[in-house]
Amino acid sequence: MMGENGTLDLTEGLDAGIQSLGLQLSAAQQEKLLAYLALLSKWNKVYNLTALRDPAQMVTHHLLDSLAAATAFTGARNVLDVGAGGGLPGMILAIWAAEAQPEMRISMIDTVHKKTAFLTQVKAELQLSNTSIYTGRVEQLQLQQLPKQQPFDVITSRAFAELNDFINWSQHLLAPGGRYIALKGLLPNAEIERLPQGWRVLESRPLAVPQLEAERHLIFIERMP
Question: Contact 96/70 with Cβ under 8 angstroms?
Answer without folding.
Answer: yes
